[in-house]
C-alpha cells in the first residue's frame, strides 16, 4: 500500500510542472494585451493610452520575455509567493486562500450531505428492486442528475426564501447562508451516489456468497450493510474523488447566484478581467487538488477492495 | 434529455411566477434609527482604488467626498469646497470649514494636497486629471491652488469625479494604496469590508451636512440580476439596483417600488468610414434609415432603454429627448441604389459585437433582420472585446455594435467628443475625420460657461448625426428597486451619493 502511494506520488511532480506550463501559456495564447485589459478592468470606459499602457506593462513585468516571466512566476510559486493581482493589487495568496476556504467548506458539506443521503438511500432501494422506495428514489435521482444548478438554485430560493421566508436568498457569513448552496451542490453527487450504490448493492445481493449467508440465517440488515454496501463504497469513493476538485474549484453558478465569495466566483471575475496572476494561481490549485485527490482515491479504493489489493500487491 | 427539457420548462415557469410577500415598497414611515441591506450591481474590482472605477463606488456609498459635486443641470456645486476661482492656468479652491474626517482629524489644505497628489501620481491616473499637467499646492489656511499646463475651463467639474475623493492624511501614511476604512468625510463611515463581497457602513454622527437616513447599511455586491430580484422579493434586501425588465413586474407584485431613470450611455452601431462601403455617406444614411430604433428600445429590450436620436440622451441637460423616427426601408433602399447596391449587387457587411453587455447580441440580431429587410446582408460575430478592439481601432472592420458612456468620470462631454470622434482621437472607432467638427470641439478648450459648453455639445452631436457617423441606437435605462426603504433620488449623472438618502421604513 505504501509502495503504491509512493509510486503514484512520484508522478505528481512532473504532472503539476506540465500543468503549470499550460496554466501560464494558455491565457497568453488568447492574443489579448494584458496591460490594456487590466486598464479596462480597472476603468471600464478607459480609452487606449500607449504611454500609460507601456508604463503598466513595465511595472507588471509584462515586457520581459515570456520564458523569463514563466520562470519568475514558477520560482515565486515554489517559494509560496503568488505575487499581487493585476486588478485588485492585493496579494494573490490571500485572495486564493480566502476563496478556497469558502469553496472548501461548501465542498465538504455538499459531499458529506451527498454521502449521508445518497449511500443509505441507494442501499435501501436495492433491498427490493422495483419496490415503492426504489421507484421513488429512481425518480428523485433522475431529477437530481438531470436538473442543472442554474435551474435548481433559483427554484430553491423561490421556495425556501421567497415563499416560505425560512432561509436567506443570498449572502455569506451566517450558518443559514449555507443551507441552499449546499443543497444545490449536493443534489448531483448525491443522486449519482444513490444510483451507483443501488445498482452495485442490488448486484451484490444476488451473488452466491450472499445467498449462502442469508441461508445460514444472517439477518437481512447485516447482509445488506456488510456484504452489499461495503463493496459499493469503492465506487462511491472513486466518485467522491472526481467531485472534490470540481467542488473545491467552486461552482461559478452557485457562488454567483447565492453571492458567495468562493474560488469559482474569484476565478470567473479574474478571467473576465484578465487578472493573470489570480487565474494562474487559482487554476493551478484546482489542478493540484484534482491530481492529489486522484492519487488518494486510487490508494483508498485499493485499500477497501480486496480484489484490487491483491492485484496491487502482485 | 427529456428530464433536462422538463427542468428548463420548470425554470421558465418559475420566472413568471410572482412573489406573495407583502411589502411596502417606498411607502411606510422612515425610520432613521433602523438598518438597511442593499444589493448593488458592481462589486469593487480594484479594492476601492481611486485610480479605478471603484473610486466612484466610495463616492456612491456616501463614504468619500470630493471637493465639488454637481447640480441637476450638471453644473459644479459645493461639496468639500465652497468656492472656486480661475486665475489663468490655475484655480483657487476654497475649502469648507469645520469638516472632520472619520478618524477625527480636520480637513485642511495639506490633507487635500496629500490626497490629490497621491491620485495624480499613480501609474495610470484617472481620466479626470490625466494629461493636463495637474498639480496642487496649499494656498493659505483655507484653500488649495490647482494648476494645469493650459488654462482649464472645467476644473470644478473635474473635481466632482469620484476618483478624486479626499481621505484623511493617515490613509496615505503607509505608502501604497490608501486605507479607506474610517478615513472619509461622508455621511457614512466605512466600518468594514469583506473583499468584493460586502461592506458595512455606519452613520457618521459628526457629518457636516445632512445626516444619512439609516443608522447602519450592509452593502452586498450581487452580480447576478436574478439573485438581486429574488433577494428583494424574499426581503433579504430593501434596495437593489440594476434589475432587468423581465424581473420588474415580479418585484412590483411583491410590493416593491420600481424607479427607472436615464443612464448616460449610448449603444451605438459604429461604421468604419475609412473604407467602402461606409466611406460613402449615402450607405451610412441608408443603414440609419433601415434601423427602427423605437422598435429596438420598446420591443427587443422590452422598454429597458430609450430610442436614441442623438449621441446624448435624457441623462444630461443637453441631451436629445425627442424620439428618433422609425425605419424608412424605402428610403434606405433608394440610398443604397444610389450608392450602387441593388438586388443584383447586394451589400454584404460584417457586424461585430461582444457579450459583456447582454443587450448587445440581442440588438445585433434585430439589426441584422432590419438591415436584411433593406437588402443588406449582415454576418454577425459575437466575440471577445479585448481581441476586437485593436482591429476596430485600426479600421479593420465594417460595423461594430458598442456601448459607451458619454461622460468620462465627471459630467462633461468634451473627453468623449474628443477621444471618439476627432481626427486624432484615441478611440476613433468610426474613423471619422472632419476639420469642421475638430474646430467645433476645439472651442471647448476655451469655453468656461456651462451653458455655452452645453450648447457646443449639442452642436457637436448634431454634426455627428448630420454626417451619419454611426447609428446612435438606444440609451439604456437604470433601474432601482425599493421594498422596505424610501428616499431614493435617482442621479443619471452618477455623481451624487445614492445610499445616504435611503431610510428603512416601518409599517
Automatic annotation (TrEMBL), chain A:
<feature type="transmembrane region" description="Helical">
    <location>
        <begin position="236"/>
        <end position="258"/>
    </location>
</feature>
<feature type="transmembrane region" description="Helical">
    <location>
        <begin position="136"/>
        <end position="166"/>
    </location>
</feature>
<dbReference type="GO" id="GO:0055085">
    <property type="term" value="P:transmembrane transport"/>
</dbReference>
<dbReference type="InterPro" id="IPR045621">
    <property type="entry name" value="BPD_transp_1_N"/>
</dbReference>
<dbReference type="InterPro" id="IPR035906">
    <property type="entry name" value="MetI-like_sf"/>
</dbReference>
<dbReference type="Pfam" id="PF00528">
    <property type="entry name" value="BPD_transp_1"/>
</dbReference>
<dbReference type="InterPro" id="IPR000515">
    <property type="entry name" value="MetI-like"/>
</dbReference>
<keyword id="KW-0472">Membrane</keyword>
<keyword id="KW-0813">Transport</keyword>
<keyword id="KW-0812">Transmembrane</keyword>
<dbReference type="Pfam" id="PF19300">
    <property type="entry name" value="BPD_transp_1_N"/>
</dbReference>
<feature type="domain" description="ABC transmembrane type-1">
    <location>
        <begin position="100"/>
        <end position="297"/>
    </location>
</feature>
<keyword id="KW-1003">Cell membrane</keyword>
<dbReference type="GO" id="GO:0005886">
    <property type="term" value="C:plasma membrane"/>
</dbReference>
<feature type="transmembrane region" description="Helical">
    <location>
        <begin position="178"/>
        <end position="197"/>
    </location>
</feature>
<feature type="transmembrane region" description="Helical">
    <location>
        <begin position="278"/>
        <end position="304"/>
    </location>
</feature>
<comment type="similarity">
    <text>Belongs to the binding-protein-dependent transport system permease family.</text>
</comment>
<feature type="transmembrane region" description="Helical">
    <location>
        <begin position="99"/>
        <end position="124"/>
    </location>
</feature>
<keyword id="KW-1133">Transmembrane helix</keyword>
<protein>
    <submittedName>
        <fullName>Peptide/nickel transport system permease protein</fullName>
    </submittedName>
</protein>
